[in-house]
Design goal:
Layout (H helix, E strand, L loop, with lengths): L4 E3 L4 H8 L5 E4 L5 H6 L7 E4 L8 E4 L2 E5 L4 H7 L4 H8 L4 H6 L2 H7 L6 H7 L3 E4 L3 E3 H4 L14 E7 L3 E8 L6 E9 L4 E6 L6 E2 L1 H9 L19 H17 L3
Parallel strand pairs: 1-3, 2-3
Antiparallel strand pairs: 4-5, 5-8, 6-7, 6-8, 9-10, 10-11, 11-12
Helix pairs in contact: 3-4
The structure holds flavin-adenine dinucleotide.
Length: 255
């Protein structure tokens, strides 16, 4: 790690001004991805802009959506998102207690790790991602490995998840990190189904064939292995098989 300035703004305007002030800047949320990246010198910001003073935490049901502030910790989503039990259960399965007590929803969505859990929930729950300057639909927001629609310096303020009739997430977790080797989130929105897959490919994606099969009450499809990840943990054929198994587990666990 090398020297950096720590900035603690009290407003969104002060945070974006600090970001634009010159040099490389990075917003700090829970720090559970950013700080390890700085320790290994993958990230070397001149300024860390701490979002803790911006009052961005909290959970508010609002008609058909559950709005959760970007700085809400995973542990608080696990304990407070009772309007969407599948989402609360997902948050309770992230990492370990230390990660859940520091890591934030906004940090995970902004980071868009291809094996992260929340992006699958955001896609399956047709989320709106609100920032200091725009509202993004989840379908357009996640653009591949560690890439999102966020512009330079844009800050996620809150995320609105459509409240489904039932939903569930099933994850085959890596035993050390607890990240998803494969995770599948299934949501029943009454007149439609949404199915999102994380961990399997270069980024989170919707599984259209599974959505159509569930809606039609037909046989569940098999995901082609062609474009799936291959790494030291699992090959593409194994990941494709796991997608089918996680899909069945999620359907069996709908709440
Ligand atoms: C041991 C370990 C196990 C983990 N296991 C899992 C797991 O099982 N599942 C899982 O999904 N994740 C897992 N994680 C990741 C964890 O959930 C992180 O908390 C998350 O990826 C990043 O959130 P953060 O609040 O720590 O963000 P930070 O590390 O502070 O920031 C991450 C990135 O997002 C940017 N950012 C943060 N907040 C905002 C915002 N509001 N607007 C715009 N940009 C922002 C930062 O500038 C940075 O680039 C694990 C992490 C660790 C260390």
């Amino acid at each position: 790690m090398r020297d950096f300035d720590l900035v603690r703004p009290a407003s969104l305007a002060a945070a974006t001004a600090a970001f634009a002030a010159g040099g490389e800047a990075a917003y700090l949320a829970g720090g559970h991805t950013l700080i390890p990246a700085m320790k290994s010198r993958l990230r070397m910001p001149d300024a860390l802009i701490d979002l803790a003073g911006l009052d961005l935490a909290g959970i508010v049901p609002d008609g058909k959506r559950l709005w959760i502030g970007a700085m809400t910790r995973h542990a608080d989503v696990a304990g407070g998102a009772s309007a969407i039990p599948g989402l609360a259960a997902l948050a309770g399965g992230i990492g370990d207690p230390q990660v859940r007590n520091r890591g934030t929803l906004g940090g995970s969505i902004a980071n868009n790790d291809p094996a992260a859990d929340y992006p699958a929930a955001a896609l399956a729950l047709d989320a709106l991602i609100e920032t200091d300057r725009a509202t993004h639909k989840a379908d357009d927001f996640f653009q591949g490995m560690f890439t999102t629609a966020l512009a330079d310096g844009e800050i996620i303020t809150r995320i609105g998840f459509a409240i489904p009739q039932r939903s569930a997430y099933a994850k085959f977790r890596h035993p050390a990190s607890r990240y998803a080797v494969v995770g599948v989130y299934v949501a029943d929105h009454g007149n439609s189904w949404r199915v999102a897959v994380t961990g399997a490919g270069p980024g989170v994606f919707r599984w259209a064939e599974a959505e159509a099969a569930i809606a039609a009450g037909g046989a569940l499809p098999t995901l082609p292995a062609d474009d799936l990840n291959s790494d030291i943990h699992a090959g593409p054929e194994y990941r494709a098989h796991l997608c089918g198994v996680m899909l069945k587990q999620a359907l069996a666990g709908l709440v």
